[in-house]
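REQUEST FORM: STRUCTURE PREDICTION
Request ID: SP-0412
Submitted by: Lab K.M.
Chain count: 1
Length (residues): 105
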Amino acid sequence: MRASKTPEDRQARRFPLKLPVAVTGKTTLDRTRTENISSGGVVFCLDSQVEVGANVALSIRLPAEVLGAPQDVLVNCSGRVVRSSPAGHGNSVAVVIDEYEFERC
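STATUS: Completed
RESULT:
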């Protein structure tokens, strides 16, 4: 039996970036901000609860001034919810990113 994962078990470094993100589930669209992000996943808070295992689509906006680019870039991702738990005034949701593509705004 394997022990549950700890932060030290994570493969990718997490960055505490607060970026605008649109989250689309089966039928809903929520807008929020990321809490942290890595090359393999993202954490954000939502008012609603999301079921672990649910497929979601994310659009994360990377500001031009952060990138040193002339315009913002959207990172459109598809992924799966791997954790959803109460936190503060909402639910902390962790998503593993399965696919992504970049789109200039």
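NOTES: The mean pLDDT is 89.
Reviewed by: T.R.
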